[in-house]
Every structure is written in structure tokens, then in C-alpha cells.
Design brief:
Shape: globular
Largest sheet: 5 strands, parallel
CATH topology of the largest domain: Rossmann fold
Helix content: 25-40%
Structural class: alpha/beta
Distance between the termini: 33 Å
CATH class of the largest domain: Alpha Beta
Strand content: 15-25%
Number of strands: 8
Number of helices: 6
Radius of gyration: 16 Å
Strand order of the largest sheet: 2-1-6-7-8
Number of domains: 2
Length: 210
């Protein structure tokens, strides 16, 4: 059990200390992953970047991820009854939301180049792993040196599914019974936009080696 996301981040940092001062980037899944990632970025002297991606849902069930999209690229697993027109319409909708997030959080800042670097993808927990899978496949196109997923808690299914896609996955808890990420936190209040910007500003004010 974690007190809150910051506590979870501090505990994760202990498990990942071998990456301290390594040329790399901490990539936070907004919004819940940001406080966790903040503690890693602070401890490891790495820059903190938001992962601006969204899942592409199946037309018959939008919660079922069939891929993911960023502002400039997308990844899709072909499915029957998923048309090119549907994908194009989803991309327009998703990128509209991502542009809004970029304006809100990035404030015109250019994304950090990931090629040749160790990237540590951080969230506050992972249930099915389907959405994160799409994000991982998108990030592979950036040609990082090494891909690591770091989460405080993961379901067994998600852990083993994602372990096949990255160089390393670290989860502090992999419970036998998993109903949801929030049950492993004493405080699992929704992270606000203001909190995200505050944490990003704090990291930007530090002497981070990029």
C-alpha cells in the first residue's frame, strides 16, 4: 500500500537506482503518472517529459485499445470491421485533445529527442496493459537505446504482457488479486492540471542534464 503517488515514486526510485545519472528521459503518463515520475526525475537527475499519446479504441468498444496515437504518428493492430475512415476520424479527434494538452502542459516547449537514450515510462499503475502497449510501440519508433516501464503496481496479466515488449519492467507490487490501481493507494485523488504544471515547473527549475 502506498500513501500517495509521491510516496510510490520514492519507493520506485530505490528499485531503479542503477539508472541514476544515466543519459535518459523520464516519460510520465498524464495525469496520474506525473507525481510518480517527478520523484524519479528528481532522484535520477533526468528530464521529465509527458507522454502525449491516447489510445485508439475499437469502434464496438471504445475502452478496448486497438492502438495509440501521438500528435505526429500512430500505431494500430489490424482488426476486422475497423475501417480506414474510422481510424482517420479517430486520429482527428485524438489529436485535437492532444494539442490541447500540449498547449496546457508543454507551453511551446519542443519535445526532448529520445533516440539513443534510456527512456523510463512511468504511470501510477497498470491494469490491462493494452493502452500502454500502444504507447510503447509508438515510442519504439523514436529508436531509444533502452526502454523501461516503471509502475508502483501492475496486474499479473499486464506485467507479463508488457515484459515481452520492453527491455525491463519494474513493478513494486504484482498482486494475486487485482481489482484496480486505486485500491493500492491510501490517497488516490485525481491529479489536477495545476498539480501537473507545478511538478513540471519544479523539475524545469532544477539543474537537469539533458
Amino acid at each position: 500500500m502506498f500513501r500517495d503517488r509521491l510516496d510510490a515514486g520514492r519507493q520506485l526510485a530505490v528499485k531503479l537506482k542503477k539508472y541514476k545519472n544515466e543519459p535518459g528521459v523520464i516519460l510520465a503518463i498524464p495525469r496520474g503518472g506525473v507525481p510518480v515520475a517527478f520523484e524519479l526525475a528528481k532522484e535520477f537527475n533526468m528530464p521529465l517529459e509527458l507522454v502525449l499519446t491516447k489510445k485508439i479504441g475499437h469502434p464496438g468498444n471504445k475502452e478496448y485499445a486497438i492502438g495509440a496515437a501521438s500528435l505526429y504518428d500512430y500505431f494500430i493492430v489490424p482488426h476486422e470491421n475497423v475501417t480506414t475512415q474510422y481510424i482517420e476520424e479517430e486520429l482527428v479527434s485524438i489529436r485535437s485533445r492532444l494539442n490541447e494538452m500540449s498547449r496546457k502542459f508543454m507551453k511551446g516547449k519542443s519535445p526532448i529527442q529520445l533516440e539513443g537514450k534510456t527512456i523510463i515510462i512511468v504511470d501510477d499503475g497498470v491494469a490491462t496493459g493494452n493502452t500502454l502497449m500502444g504507447t510503447v510501440n509508438l515510442l519504439k519508433k523514436s529508436n531509444p537505446k533502452k526502454m523501461v516501464i516503471a509502475v508502483p503496481v501492475a496486474s499479473k496479466i499486464a506485467f507479463y504482457k508488457l515484459s515481452k515488449e520492453v527491455d525491463e519492467i519494474v513493478a513494486l507490487l504484482i498482486p494475486e488479486i487485482f481489482h484496480g490501481v486505486g485500491e493500492f493507494y491510501e490517497d488516490f485523488e485525481q491529479v489536477s492540471d495545476e498539480e501537473v504544471n507545478e511538478l513540471l515547473d519544479k523539475i524545469n527549475d532544477m539543474e537537469i542534464v539533458k
